[in-house]
Design brief:
This protein is mainly α. The protein has one domain. Helix content is about 35%, strand content about 5%. Helix 1 crosses helix 2 and helix 1 crosses helix 3.
Length: about 100
């Protein structure tokens, strides 16, 4: 059993504890979840015994103390929906003109 951290998704859990993204499907099924379900911090998840492990990746995350948490917060979603300005968001021929 593993404990979900803040902003973790099933993909984060899968890569951290099994070393592959593909195992997110098996983890979801084992826990009665959908891949897109928002996980609650502190929730306990089962990692099925039949998943294929990539121990190199698992050991890397463990040795470096990396805990992926790529889930978006409400604030992140609101920011993504607002109009972005600046050179990083301009499209040539649409909002950025070359003359």
């Amino acid at each position: 059993m593993i404990t979900v951290l803040n902003n973790q998704s099933l993909f984060d859990i899968s890569i951290r504890y099994t070393g592959t993204i593909e195992n997110a499907f098996k983890i979801a099924v084992a826990n009665g979840l959908s891949l897109t379900d928002e996980l609650q911090p502190g929730a306990q998840l089962i990692i099925p015994a039949d998943v294929e492990m990539n121990n190199d990746v698992v050991n890397y995350f463990s040795a470096k103390g990396i805990q992926p948490a790529t889930g978006l917060t409400e604030n992140d979603l609101l920011m993504a929906q607002t109009v972005q300005r600046g050179i990083g968001y301009m499209q040539i021929g649409k909002t950025f003109k070359v003359s």
